[in-house]
Write a structure and sequence with these properties.
The structure holds 2 protein chains of 2 kinds. Chain A is mainly β. Chain A has strands spanning 9-13, 18-23, 31-38, 45-50, 55-56, 61-64, 70-75, 84-92, 107-112. Chain B contains no helices and 11 strands. In chain B, a hairpin with a 2-residue loop joins strand 5 (43-51) and strand 6 (54-57). Chain B is globular and about 40 Å long. Classes of the chains: A mainly beta, B mainly beta.
Chain lengths: 113, 114
């Protein structure tokens, strides 16, 4: 699996868009980018994933650069409840995915009132 | 509602004692996983099971044991051989074919060994 690099922490004002970057310069052509988040003392929660095209769902948008070496997770209108650690994971979509996935340290996003 | 239940939420044990953490899911998922998280760190995979009566070691299996006698249950035993057992333990499950976005996590058990 390709290695990812994320900032350790970020601040964002409540109501503004939070943009979380992730570098994955060694990503291969068939590896997907996944984002999870973990609110303090809870289990991680799936947010979104993508391969090449930008993706959007009810929680967030994922922007992947054309060379696929980096991506940005966008929370369009951040609220205090979005304060969490955000993990960027790059991995082959194996279909089964049943051999576990690996989380790095992620980015601690703090939403300021 | 379907989900994963981990119990207890907080657990205290004396050094040298084995302790078993419970994980039950009613999602009918085939695969289940145990992760360990230390303060300020990411999650590390301990064991995983793709099907009943079968399980595989993850990255940090030493000092831990598991069983998978039922599809719904995947208990983790932290043995006295685990050198540094104090940590936050997370159980997860996924349906075969769902890939990474199909992972559902429990709320975790915080184990403190004194």
């Amino acid at each position: 699996d390709a290695k990812t690099t994320q900032p350790t922490s970020m601040d964002c004002a409540e109501g503004r868009a939070a943009n979380l970057p992730c570098n994955h310069s060694t990503i291969s052509g068939n590896e997907y980018v996944y984002w999870y988040r973990q609110i303090h003392s809870q289990g991680p929660q799936y947010i979104i994933h993508g391969l090449k095209n930008n993706e959007t769902n009810e929680m967030a948008s994922l922007i992947i650069t054309e060379d696929r070496k980096s991506s940005t997770l966008i929370l369009p209108h951040a609220t205090l409840r979005d304060t969490a650690v955000y993990y960027c994971i790059v991995r082959l979509y194996s279909g089964g995915g049943a051999d576990g996935l690996t989380f790095g340290k992620g980015t601690h996003l703090i939403i300021q009132p | 509602d379907g989900g994963i239940t981990q119990s207890p939420k907080y657990l205290f044990r004396k050094e040298g004692q084995n302790v078993t953490l419970s994980c039950e899911q009613n999602l009918n998922h085939d695969a289940m996983y145990w992760y360990r998280q230390d303060p300020g760190q990411g999650l590390r995979l301990i064991y995983y099971s793709q099907i009943v009566n079968d399980f595989q070691k993850g990255d940090i299996a030493e000092g831990y044991s598991v069983s998978r006698e039922k599809k719904e249950s995947f208990p983790l035993t932290v043995t006295s051989a685990q050198k540094n057992p104090t940590a936050f333990y997370l159980c997860a499950s996924s349906e075969q074919g769902q890939g990474l976005y199909g992972y559902t996590f429990g709320s975790g058990t915080r184990l403190t060994v004194v």
